[in-house]
Each structure stands twice: as structure tokens, then as C-alpha cells.
């Protein structure tokens, strides 16, 4: 008898589970669905505002230059039957919503009213793909936030090759001219002109503006194709020439190129020129480095000046870093009828020197016909006494 009683209870439990489980599952699904898809409830069953945007809130712009500003306008309408509240929401850097009424962060649209939302963005120094956004928050329960997005490609107003704007001549001889072509081009200003070129050493560096050759244009286009830059470009080249007789030694100079590009933030383009100028006189080591010099003791370092063509040379010390003493004497005993081929340059940081860093060139003037001047960099660290 007990066995039949237990079987009856088990059967009743299975029946109740079959009835309750679908209801629980259905209730769970409805809760999840309500989170994803708002539905009319007791809280929003009355007249509601409806935020309607006149077109897709994503604007794709044509390629733009750096340091430029862009704008795009959307219209938001209240197509509902209650007041629509609009509030400025978060935005990404360099992208702002500009024209809320009276520059306030919140305002109200009556049913049937509309307003324009203007999005402004700044390209700044971005280069390549650009995407920024700003949002408007609403009290429309079905559209609580509207994100307005702008995207496109940003290019420098004037592009430069080499793109890093550094020309490394490496080792070049000062007894002949050495030239390099710097290309300048733009995609948005067909009449681009180079209006001025200046150099840090006009007595040794000369420049000329010339059209790009067909081969140069093809090479530029090939490099742009690799970056998916299909738009047309217009430009010139600046031929930079290091004249014979440029000072021997390591050099770091600059040219400044000004164009008539209309972008108001397109300033002069700076291109660094670096390398080592070699000639009939050399210095070993090329850079005089003195580290951890005790201020109360000082230090002395020697460098060798070698005259390769064995011409007699007189050296004059034109300038030197502050706090450094320099002297030059013949290192060889010249044979009869011959000039010395090596000279010893002694560089001294005297005892009692001021602690800190010393950095700058020793500039020597010579009477050699092919080396009017040479520079030797000095780098030193003077430590204070304890």
C-alpha cells in the first residue's frame, strides 16, 4: 500500500514541474527581452516624445588636411506628443556639438518642433583614418542616446618626402657639391607654390625650387598607392645642395620651406640636414666626450687633428664651450721642407669648474684652401663635490 502511495506523490510532482517550468522559463525570457527591447509600460503609457533624425547619424567626409576644422548638420525633430528633452552627452576629443540653444547644455522641443544639431571636429595632427563622435541624450524611452559620428581620412596639408623631414647625408666630401631632393605636395590645393626657402647656413647651403620629374611623380604615387591614397596630388621639389668648402666634421643644419597653402595653420616646414662632412683635415675622436668630471679636480682630454694632404696648416680657435680651455700644437716633428701632418688639440675642464653639463662645438678656423672651418662637438658632465 505504501509503495502505491509514494508512486502517486512522485507522479503529482512530475505533473507540477511540467506546468511550472515553462512559466518560469517564459518569465525569464520576457525579463531579458524587456532589457533589450523597451516596451510600453505603466510608466510610459501616456503621451511620449519621439526623437527623429533627418538622416543617418554617420557622416563620411572627403580627405581633409591636418589642423583643419569640419562641420556637419543634422536635424532632430520631435514627432511625438510630449516634450522632447535634449541634453549634451559625452564626446571624443576634438569633436563637439556646437549649437544648442543659447549655448546651453539642455533644451526642450515641443511636439512638432525641430532643431539643427551641428557637429564640429578638428583634425589637429592626426594622419590617416579619423573617427570621432558626440552624443545627444533624450527622454525618448526608445532612443535615450543618439550618437553622431564623423569619419574619413586626414592628410597633412602639405606632405613631405622624406616623411620624417630628416635628410641624412651620411659621409660626404667637402671638396664637391652634395645634393638631395625634398618633395612637397598636397591633395587639396592644385596651385600650391613654394614662396620662400631659408637655411641655417646660407653661405654653405643653397636651394632651388623645381618641378617634380615624371619619375619622381611615379615614385610618389606608388608610395601613396601602398597607403591607399588614391586622390590626385600637386607639388614641387626643393633641391638642397651642400656647397664645396662646408666645414669639416659632424653637422646638423636646417632648412625652412614656406608655401602658399591656404590652411591658416600650415606654418613653415622644417627639414633637418645631418651627416658628416669629411675633407683633407680630420679629427679623432670625432666627438669629445668627458663624463663624471669632478668639479674640484677637473680633467684633460686630447684629440688628434690629421692633415691628409700634408699641407702646412695654421689653426685659430674661433669659439668653444663656456668653461673649457683649448690649445693646439704640432704633434709631429716636421722634416726639412715638409709640413707637420698631425696636430694635438688639448681640451681642459679646469679644477673649480661649475657643476652641470657642458655641450657645444669647438670651432676652428684654418688657412687650408679646402677647409676654411671645422667643428668638433664637446659633451661633458661635471659633478659637484660632496
Core attributes:
Immunoglobulin-like; 12% helix; 6-stranded mixed beta sheet; 3 domains; mainly beta; 26 strands; elongated; 386 residues; disordered N terminus; 2 helices
Describe the model.
It is built from two helices and 26 strands. With 386 residues, the protein is mostly beta strands. The strands form six sheets. Strands 2, 3, 5, 7, 9 and 10 form a six-stranded mixed beta sheet that branches. A four-stranded antiparallel beta sheet has the order 1-4-8-6, with no helix packed on it. A four-stranded antiparallel beta sheet has the order 11-13-16-15, with no helix packed on it. β9 (128-138) and β10 (145-155) form a beta hairpin. The radius of gyration is 38 Å and the shape is elongated.
Structural topology:
Blueprint: H1 2-36, E1 51-53, E2 58-60, E3 64-65, E4 69-78, E5 84-91, E6 95-97, E7 106-109, E8 114-122, E9 128-138, E10 145-155, E11 159-161, E12 166-173, E13 178-186, E14 194-199, E15 205-211, H2 214-226, E16 234-242, E17 249-259, E18 269-278, E19 281-284, E20 288-294, E21 299-307, E22 315-319, E23 325-330, E24 342-349, E25 356-368, E26 371-383
Parallel strand pairs: 2-10, 3-10, 12-18, 20-26
Antiparallel strand pairs: 1-4, 4-8, 5-7, 5-9, 6-8, 9-10, 11-13, 13-16, 14-17, 15-16, 17-18, 19-21, 21-24, 22-25, 23-24, 25-26
Question: What's a quick, concise take on this entry?
Answer:
The chain is mainly β and 386 residues long. Helix content is 12%, strand content 50%. The longest helix is centred in the first third of the chain and has 35 residues.
Q: Proportion of β residues?
A: over 45%
Number of helices: 2
Please name the CATH architecture of the largest domain.
Answer: Sandwich
Order of helices and strands: HEEEEEEEEEEEEEEEHEEEEEEEEEEE
CATH first level of the largest domain: which class? Mainly Beta
Report, as a whole number of angstroms, the end-to-end distance: 104 Å
Biggest sheet descriptor: 6 strands, mixed
CATH level 4 superfamily of the largest domain: Immunoglobulins
Can you tell me the number of structural domains? 3
Low-pLDDT residue spans: 1-10, 17-38
| Large-scale geometry | elongated
Question: How much helix, percentage-wise, in residues?
Answer: 10-25%
Amino acid at each position: 500500500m505504501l509503495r502505491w502511495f509514494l508512486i502517486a506523490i512522485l507522479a503529482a510532482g512530475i505533473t507540477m514541474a511540467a506546468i511550472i517550468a515553462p512559466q518560469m522559463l517564459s518569465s525569464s525570457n520576457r525579463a531579458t527581452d524587456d532589457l533589450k527591447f523597451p516596451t510600453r509600460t505603466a510608466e510610459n503609457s501616456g503621451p511620449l516624445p519621439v526623437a527623429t533624425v533627418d538622416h543617418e547619424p554617420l557622416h563620411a567626409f572627403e580627405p581633409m588636411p591636418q589642423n583643419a576644422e569640419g562641420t556637419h548638420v543634422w536635424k532632430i525633430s520631435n514627432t511625438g506628443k510630449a516634450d522632447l528633452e535634449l541634453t549634451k552627452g559625452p564626446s571624443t576629443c576634438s569633436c563637439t556639438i556646437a549649437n544648442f540653444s543659447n549655448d546651453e547644455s539642455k533644451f526642450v522641443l515641443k511636439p512638432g518642433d525641430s532643431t539643427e544639431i551641428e557637429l564640429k571636429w578638428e583634425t589637429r595632427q592626426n594622419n590617416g583614418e579619423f573617427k570621432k563622435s558626440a552624443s545627444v541624450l533624450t527622454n525618448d524611452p526608445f532612443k535615450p542616446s543618439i550618437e553622431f559620428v564623423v569619419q574619413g581620412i586626414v592628410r597633412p596639408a602639405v606632405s613631405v618626402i622624406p616623411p620624417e623631414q630628416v635628410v641624412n647625408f651620411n659621409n660626404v666630401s667637402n671638396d664637391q657639391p652634395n645634393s638631395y631632393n625634398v618633395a612637397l605636395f598636397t591633395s587639396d590645393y592644385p596651385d600650391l607654390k613654394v614662396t620662400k626657402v631659408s637655411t641655417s647656413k646660407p653661405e654653405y647651403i643653397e636651394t632651388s625650387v623645381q618641378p617634380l620629374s615624371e619619375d619622381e611623380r611615379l615614385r610618389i604615387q606608388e608610395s601613396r598607392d601602398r597607403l591607399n591614397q588614391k586622390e590626385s596630388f600637386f607639388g614641387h621639389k626643393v633641391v638642397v645642395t651642400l656647397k664645396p668648402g662646408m666645414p669639416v666634421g659632424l653637422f646638423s643644419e636646417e632648412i625652412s620651406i614656406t608655401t602658399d597653402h591656404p590652411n591658416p595653420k600650415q606654418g613653415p616646414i622644417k627639414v633637418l640636414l645631418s651627416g658628416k662632412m669629411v675633407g683633407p683635415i680630420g679629427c679623432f675622436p670625432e666627438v669629445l666626450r668627458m663624463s663624471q668630471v669632478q668639479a674640484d679636480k677637473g680633467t684633460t682630454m686630447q684629440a688628434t687633428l690629421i692633415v691628409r694632404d700634408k699641407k702646412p696648416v695654421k689653426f685659430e680657435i674661433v669659439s668653444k664651450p663656456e668653461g673649457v680651455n683649448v690649445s693646439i700644437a704640432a704633434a709631429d716633428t716636421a722634416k726639412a721642407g715638409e709640413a707637420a701632418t698631425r696636430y694635438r688639440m688639448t681640451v681642459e675642464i679646469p679644477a673649480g669648474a661649475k657643476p652641470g653639463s657642458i655641450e657645444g662645438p669647438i670651432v676652428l678656423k684654418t688657412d687650408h684652401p679646402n677647409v676654411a672651418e671645422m667643428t668638433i662637438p664637446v659633451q661633458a658632465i661635471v659633478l659637484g663635490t660632496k
